[in-house]
């Protein structure tokens, strides 16, 4: 029996320890000694935080191919570093202008704006350095595919492009289809990359990769739906960040369009869709199934 | 006879055309369609500009190993994208707060701050996407080494770390040795990565790579020295950006310490050092020799 609570807690511990070990002056690459301040800011923006869902997805997808969890960790750390850099930059005054993240001061509040910009840039860069490291996977062909996958998930046609679309959408006038594309890119693309990276580490063939991509795209939509719902239903205390911001900003979320119950029904259908995509994999995909269901039930 | 003016002009044209072709919605990777606005900002921040010295170094180092210039271009584009992202972020109000770059409005002036942050993030990410593309080099082992090299040159122990040290140094109290480390990281590390990437494309052995690294480190110091000298001697009109900023900010450059003549003598010695490191390579290294000498003579 797969135990989601145990596996996700174990993964979160492994990610915390892995990031803490990797994000030191001694470990990071480059011809010169890193500045202590940028390392401190990178650590502030990435340690002691988050559910580490993306590394969990890497681990769970790799588990389908019997990859031991420690072999899926480096790629998981790289995805998490991308996620954390995006939060640091999104929190900046010129973007969402948030003072708190997980109940603690955001990086530009704890340090300053210039340091937050640089710490984000550094986390983004070091994510690729980590993937290039032979310790991540012995086969260079797999490592370079991981680089391509992470870049595709986080770049212009993925997370960053989605973030840009989100800002443009705040000015109003987005159609429902445009909102769906924006959300698939802003949060979906990195979830998709996480699952596909786990599959690539496991040596998935084209058919398995395609099924797992279908899972990941549905799971990403479920994650976003849950987020939109929580923005309406949760309190700032539970979430450790401001809520009700979407409605305040007049954002065209699914909740605004379908109402709370309609959005919850759509969430259930989307989770079913994700789980259905895994039908050929048997019990080794129970981790991914549990994560999709968790998206529908999470309370923060 | 190697013709520096012709080769550098040809390289600049190739980089301009290559970036313009790569930075379109159709070419960039990712599951979704990139936002037009972020692509426009990436193009504003990277096209029609600059001397393209880093791609030239990639090409010149690769030429030692008889690599045709078009085969050195993709890696050169990747380095140039990193250079351009760093300029976009450095120009932001929270960093150097510059309104003009090469005589045109900086990206945050032509667009806005959020767009400039995202365009920088996107260029940084797409640089690694480009290196991962099989079109960059047929051998995955070489491509992943290019990723490692570029990340090392531009990350915490390289360019970004140097930028952080520079900001800290502006508060004063840096020793001469600390300034040297900062400059080696801030501008030297990416020059070093450019030369080494050219060598890796050419299949350089450890000995050749070591000689070229020695060249690159001296050339990087020469480049920085020339920059410090130009900040004192050039006019804003020639440079297309503000000058005299170092002295105004009380920056501890070599010019401030040795005076203008002392700095010029040191620049000549450093160029000699760079050229000496190439002695085993014969005429195929004339390109790199010419670039080091160009650093000593440039007027903008």
From TrEMBL, chains A, B:
GO molecular function: metal ion binding; prenyltransferase activity
Keywords linked to the UniProt accession: Isoprene biosynthesis, Magnesium, Metal-binding, Transferase
Top-level lineage group: Bacteria
GO-annotated cellular components: cytoplasm
Cofactor(s) needed: Mg(2+)
Pfam families, A to Z: polyprenyl_synt (PF00348)
InterPro entries: Isoprenoid_synthase_dom_sf, Polyprenyl_synt, Polyprenyl_synt_CS, Prenyl_diphosphate_synthase
A GO BP entry: terpenoid biosynthetic process
Record-linked CDD domains: Trans_IPPS_HT
Protein family membership: Belongs to the FPP/GGPP synthase family.
PANTHER family to which the protein is assigned, alphabetical: FARNESYL DIPHOSPHATE SYNTHASE
Name the record gives this protein: Probable farnesyl diphosphate synthase
